[in-house]
Amino acid sequence: MPCLNFETTMTYVVTESCIRCKYTDCVDVCPVDCFREGPNFLVIDPDECIDCAVCVPECPVNAIYAEDDVPGDQQHFIKLNADLTHDWPSITKSKGALPDADEWKDVKAKLDQLVK
Question: Which domains does the chain have, with CATH numbers?
Answer without folding.
Answer: 17-93 (3.30.70.20)
